[in-house]
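Notes continue from the previous slide.

Worked example: a multi-chain complex. Inputs as given:
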Amino acid sequence: MAVPPDLVAGSRTGSIFDLGYHGYDGPRLGRRHAVSTLFVHSLKWTFGIGRGGRAKIAPFVLAGLTLLPAVLAVGIRALAGPAAERVNPITPQNYLTYVQTFIAFFVTAQAPELLGRDQRSHALTLYFSRALERSDYALAKYGALVAALALVLLAPQVVLLLGIVFASIDLVSGLDQVVPLLLPIVVSTAVAAAFFSGIGLAIAAFIPRRAFSAGAIVATFLVLSGVVQAVVVQGRLGDPLRYIALLDPYGLLDGLASTTFGVPGRNASVTNSGIDPALFAAGAALVAVATLVVLVVRYRRIEA
Amino acid sequence: MSAKATPPAVSVRAVAKWYGNVVAVNDVTFDLEPGVTGLLGPNGAGKSTLLHLIAGLLRPSAGSVTVGGNPSFGDPAVYRRVGLVPEREAVFPYLTAREFVRLSARLQGLPLGSGAIDRALETVELSMAADRELATYSKGMRQRAKVAAALVHDPAVLVLDEPFNGMDPRQRLHMMALLRELAGRGRVILFSSHILEEVERVAERVLVVVAGRLAASGDFREIRRLMTDRPHSFTLRTSDDRALASRLAGRPTISGLAFDGGRLDVRTTDFAAFTRELPVLARDAGVSIFELAPADESLESVFDYLVRR
Amino acid sequence: MSGSPSSAGRRPVPGWPAAAPSPPPLPRRPSAPVLGASVLGPLVDLTARGLLGRRRIILVGLLGLAPAGVAIILVLGGELAAPAEVTRQLYDSLVLTTVVPLVALILGTTAIGAEIDDGTVIHLLAKPVGRAWIVLAKMLVAGAAGVMICATSVLVTGLLLVGLDEPRLVLGMLAGTVVSVVAYTAVFVTLSVWTGRALIAGLGYVLLWEGFIASFFSGTRLLSIREYGLAVAAGIAGPEAGSLPSDVTLATGLVLAMLVTAVAFVLGARRLARFEISDAG
């Protein structure tokens, strides 16, 4: 190949070469597609799909642990029959409160994973220079964690429902027992997933380093519930101090469960403070929304 | 000149480093003497690993690394004589440059008020900005702060990992001059780079690392000369290209001739024979040679060849 | 490959001055020993600035002061029926079980963990300083910070709830807090030298080991730092210990806590001496 004249040693011309690159003028998928892609990607990310083996350990172990009591309960019921009911404390109505610690752990493990890496590796710049808006990013991440957590929480409750159906005399009576529970389960799971995820994400959004934000999240859950329990266990606080009970995330969960299912609360924050469980449920929903707002504002303002 | 009475400053003998199945450094042997040595290789070739091995921050999986006769790993005393400028940008962002260099000085046991800190900062031209936090520094300034911290105790051996990263041309020239000056005062300087021009300009000696192995060492022109299984290319400007070319064509050592604009490109398999025969042929043909230049004796072509091997 | 003799390989590079002929000889043995106690000052200074000088310490402080917050709320709520009992329960369940381990965890793992994580530890390791002194400096700063936060919190809590009526109880709680904070931070600092996942490991220890296992299997109580803290608190509180659970005597708890701290220190120092930098080239 002849050497182009401008490359001969000693000459001083320059040129630009056409390498055959062209721009893309075709249709672009747009913002909706970007958001849904990020949502799906984040959802998979939460379960460690596409990330290699080690990343799957935490979410699947926690999901398994969340599922385990339900499976055990159904198994025992199937084996021991109705007599088991008296010793089996696990029912669909209180399942969420039963596994509350695992919910907190799931959020502790996954919220930093979802948000921390993008902040540290400056991938946010790439995200925000696409069709994705900043608030879209926050919404997609929030939605993904909520969806993931909801899946993890629904599975055992579905198992319990199936257990009820199969243990009952015939299908109709089984369904009679089960169908009224469906709506409360969906609502309580959704709100529970939302406000737990919200707390975790709101904290993780401010702490890029994953281990530290995990510590902060678990510390928040432990300290909030610990402090409130310590305060309300006395059982005789007057207004307005007894409303501190609303700060307990597990209390909010219990109030949510008891409101949607119409059963009395079990958590000390609910019972000892004398506050209507419905207020706790409202508090849970409020936290879910407020943390989402915090998340969106944070990502609107973050430097990227 | 009793060059062999004292042991070489840094001695690397059959050193290998592996992580499970991945071999980062494979059977590398060399000595370092006073002067500037450039460690050259593509990314992932194991340059950083080798530098960390020399700096005593990694344990060799096989072989030995000694500094001043003592093994470098596990012996904090070696750092009295060694200064390291690591590649990672991370420094303590809440310290100012002066505090960072002072920390280095104190951890080296230098007495306070010895002026070493100010000297080090002056050497890297950070005296003016020394009281700003490192978090506010640009990348090149952070590099210079690291160099100052590494120089504060006047080490006999200075190891730099990609030191010119992030430096603008003026800073780079200054750093090159600094390294040359230190080498002139008898220090052993080893720096790594994947940018050929830097190594070409500063290093007296080159170690080429490819895929964890030492592919070549020494002066790169000598290395080129050693590469006998590859034809050398020259470009000539003469008074009569064709006449000379027809004479050359008859010689068995010539493997290629090309006319290119006003120049004659010659490829030869035997460098030594060519240099002997060319003047004779030119004189016999009555051709004057105005210019004879090697066309591929750059570090780039050497490197290219070594990497592809 | 190293066959070419040293001086022949050094061709002068055009444009640069030729090298001077006489290099300073490299001594066969290091001319001065590795630095010891004199580096403790600068290391403590550095760690203190890194650990305490940011907004992080405010959050840790808030965390540590949670029990005091509880005390304030309870006091505002009116006269307590059994303030001493409340104090003891608070101490056992909130302070020793949650707040102290978490504060120690965050401080302990960040003291050296952050530097290992972002690679700045190389600036400490590439110096002729004994590794033990580095670890000691980290433990001192993290421990001192933890003690200050938690002891203040416990003191305020005790004074608010029981005032000066139960001085031995407050004293006991303080002592137990100091002992457990020191032991916890030592363990967590060492843990972060050993593994990059120290925070998770530490959480696992606190929540799983001390939370579940140690409460079920009484034999393992001797391996729980929380038990040491309780033992010291109950031992010093003496008659005012009341319902503070303590299956372990004061002496045992104290000795074991000191042993755990010492062992953690030794293990940490030894591991740091063999530490290998692991950043990617």
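Summary box: Chain B touches chain A through five residues (CB under 8 Å). The mean pLDDT of chain B is 87.
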